[in-house]
Amino acid sequence: MARFKDFNFKLVVIDVLMYRQELLAPAFDLDARMRERGIDIPAVYVLENDIDDEVLDESRAFFEELEIGDELLAEVETLCFDAGQQIYRHCAPAWDGEDDLFDIRSLDDLALLPNLKRVTAVDDGTLVAPGKWESFAARGIEAS
Predict the structure, then answer these.
(1) What is the pLDDT of residue 95?
(2) Is the pLDDT of residue 15 over 90?
(3) Which residue of 51, 95, 109, 118 pairs with 9 in a disulfide if CB–CB is 3.0 to 4.6 A?
(4) Largest Cα–Cα distance of the chain, in whole Å?
(5) How far, in Å, CA of 33 to CA of 35, rounded?
(6) What separation in angstroms does the CA of 89 have from each of 96, 117, 132, 139?
């Protein structure tokens, strides 16, 4: 199984495989998990408990432990670094995209995606890794 170095990069990959392509199942559903504990609106809960600026422990544990096989990683052809990814709502339900909580600081994990052809929101999202444009160009990945 692949070992990611950057947790936030892994989240972007999981977003593609779990929520967009629906290849990684079952999908993690924070709302359903919290409803089981009597919490109706996760965003309100995290705001009331002053934990709106962090990844919830249960989300972090789930996604850190989630193993992704090489065959699934080979299915990833496009990544989007937009701050509005669905996965972020399952990690920090009241996150407003205005801080560095999900910033990706390293592109070392690109090596795990042999068929990656395109990336988007390179300058407008969560990707702050130095040398990002050069890294994509060196791998022949179209970046916008």
Answers:
(1) 95
(2) yes
(3) 109
(4) 50
(5) 6
(6) 10, 26, 25, 31
Structure tokens at 18: 């779990």
Beta-bridge partner residues of 59: none
Distance of CA 6 to the CA centre of its chain: 10
43-46 contacts: CB < 8 A, separation 24 or more?
Answer: 43/93, 43/94, 44/94, 45/93, 46/92, 46/93, 46/94
Residue range 94-105, pLDDT digits in tens: 998 889 999 999
In sequence order, what are the residues at sequence separation of 6 or more whose Cβ sits closer than 8 angstroms to the Cβ of residue 46?
A: 52, 56, 92, 93, 94
